[in-house]
Design brief:
Layout (H helix, E strand, L loop, with lengths): L1 H28 L16 H20 L7 H14 L1 H10 L4 E8 L6 H4 L15 H4 L18 E2 L9 H13 L2 E8 L16 H10 L3 E6 L7 H15 L7 E3 L5 E7 L7 H8 L15 E5 L5 H8 L3 E3 L16 H10 L3 E3 L1 E2 L23 H12 L5 E3 L14 E2 L18 H20 L2
Helix pairs in contact: 3-8, 7-8, 9-10, 10-11, 13-14
Length: 457
Amino acid sequence: MARFRRRTCIILLLFILFICSIMMALKTLRPDRAGFGDPFGLGLLPELQQRTVLLDSKQNLLNRAQGDTVTRVSNFHSIAVNTMKASMSSVRKLEEELSSPNYNFHIFYYTWYGNPQFDGKYIHWNHPLLPHWDPKIANNYPKGRHNPPEDIGANFYPELGSYSSKDPTVIEAHMKQMRAASTGVIVLSWYPPGMADENGEPTDDLVPVVLDYAHKYNLKVTFHIEPYKDRDDRSMYHNVKYIIDKYGSHPAFYRHKTSTGRLLPMFYVYDSYVTIPEIWANLLTVSGSQSIRNTPYDALFIALLVEERHKHDIHRSGFDGMYTYFATNGFSYGSSHHNWASLKAFCDSNNLMFIPSVGPGYIDTSIRPWNNHNTRNRVNGKYYETAFSAALLVRPEIISITSFNEWHEGTQIEKAIPKRTGQVVYLDYKPHKPNVYLELTQKWSEKYRKEQEQWLM
């Protein structure tokens, strides 16, 4: 009996020593900053760690902003720089975990959103309901504006809520998402200083901060020049000169290497077809009266193709290529996948770039309630993958993605979450996770890289 008790005591002692050794090992894994009750283990998951840091930063900014809801842009840049310096070590870690950027994947990005904390009011989230042009049809649909934060001008709801594009933590979260998706070039929606769309406010002051955060994540930035009143050859010359003079020396400013070895800036020109070819030719041909060719401001200019006839106008205008923008297969000639092969052939024969635009779906009934017939269901990601497959078939040099965050038209790949309010039930990405479209983009970016190697052999 005594021998049995002695053996039991030895086993018990060994068991206690084993437990102690396990506890010591776990303690070495636990971060030094972790206090009692911290969610141990979450830091080992990059996505959760990213979101935890984001929420902590947002709460700190919220506490500082109490009593002064409007953040001035003059202070904004220095805040953003300080935030970046504080987190450079975490970026080095992310560099090892994230896919390398693909500079042939360009993604449309919008900085027109605002909220009371950073802007003194909601901007764009309170988008008006746009009336149909036919009064008889318009009378059958509701009127008014959306009322954020519960009721926003979108059919999906962002994981970041009704954010401000001025919020440094939001900009950083966006850069992380775009880098995680293995995109490489941000196509930034841009109006000249002091100008904006009819529902927004000027955003040119945000460009330096976007460039800084893009550089932090090894991304590049190019410009999507929006249509503004009286846009013509002269104003466009001044726009391009302004952008290159002010931002062209930034390391995140995008330059594309041409087949002749030149490194040139690139500008996407939205609604280019509104201006007649003769006006564009003044700017974009060597003999034009406002010619930008062979000057320090020469660049690659990419026109929007909507109708088939636009391809001839684009060529005559002196543009360097065309893109299709709309994420609605069948909506226009340019956005219809089955037309991309003939458009690519036309471009090849005329020394033009063809940049097809792919998107995850389309729904804008939150702002155009009468436009349900143009909705394109996401089919749990299948619509997006079909678009990528069609784009790869024509072997384009660049693929553009519509969009990262055009929430009004439901083309975003930014993270969205399920949300239900008393007024609205928002669409979501279920049964998939909020980052499913980032993952699909990353998947097709890798597929593009592998197939491009075969094209070039």
